[in-house]
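$ ./design --mode recover --in tokens.txt
reading tokens...
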């Protein structure tokens, strides 16, 4: 679940609190830290059964001052934003997130259930950079893959690579338009037997302007994060190590 607060609403509520105190002729009460309260509510409402340490839950704030929850774990110079499917949440990539941590990377799994998912993905990239990541990648599954491509296309400076698993060409963002202007290395993957998603991967790969792109169609009908078997994990870890070589 995601809780959204906007700055205007916080200011209005603070003014109300102060006004009520003044009406009775009393000194206005010290206003509560409403921004902090809103951020704490996002943490409290996060659907994160995979997170054993609540200290790993963080709040991501986009340019419109909307808030969403994310699970942050790991250290290292390389950070990966993980974007879930429409039927998932921040725990959907948990097995892969733990693999990233084992390999010395940072993982940031973000709740992108809202329509402003692209903005939250971009804010997540900025968050990882602020936390010290020198290289940042964006990985997404199904709708999350579409969001990953669209978000990466609008990030400055560019991310270091994108992996899109079973992404539709359009789902709350236009992946076709994104790949036509996204120069960074990209892995496009889908199960060869998952019909329209395999077709979408082929189309996005064809439209991509990246000089370092790879189309992966394993013989499978599994969708999105279901593609994360040993072979796919190995490819994605190699992609993090050397995007150009992994997509050659």
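writing sequence...
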């Amino acid at each position: 679940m995601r809780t959204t607060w906007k700055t205007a609403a916080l200011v209005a509520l603070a003014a109300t609190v102060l006004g009520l105190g003044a009406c009775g002729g009393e000194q206005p009460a010290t206003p509560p830290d409403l921004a902090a309260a809103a951020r704490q509510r996002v943490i409290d409402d996060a659907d994160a059964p995979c997170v054993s340490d609540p200290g790993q839950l963080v709040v991501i704030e986009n340019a419109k001052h909307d808030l969403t929850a994310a699970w942050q774990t790991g250290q290292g110079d390389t950070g990966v934003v993980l974007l879930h499917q429409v039927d998932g949440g921040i725990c959907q990539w948990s097995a892969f997130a733990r693999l990233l941590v084992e390999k010395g990377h940072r993982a940031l799994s973000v709740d992108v259930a809202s329509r402003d998912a692209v903005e939250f993905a971009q804010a997540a990239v900025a968050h990882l950079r602020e936390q010290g990541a020198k290289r940042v990648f964006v990985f997404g599954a199904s709708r999350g893959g579409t969001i990953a491509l669209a978000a990466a296309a609008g990030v400055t400076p560019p991310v270091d690579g994108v992996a899109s698993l079973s992404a539709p060409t359009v789902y709350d963002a236009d992946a076709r338009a994104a790949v036509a202007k996204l120069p960074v290395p990209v892995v496009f993957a889908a199960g060869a037997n998952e019909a329209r998603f395999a077709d979408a991967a082929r189309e996005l790969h064809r439209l991509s302007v990246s000089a370092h792109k790879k189309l992966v169609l394993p013989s499978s009908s599994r969708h999105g994060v279901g593609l994360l078997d040993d072979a796919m994990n190995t490819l994605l870890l190699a992609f993090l190590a050397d995007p150009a070589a992994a997509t050659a």
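exit 0
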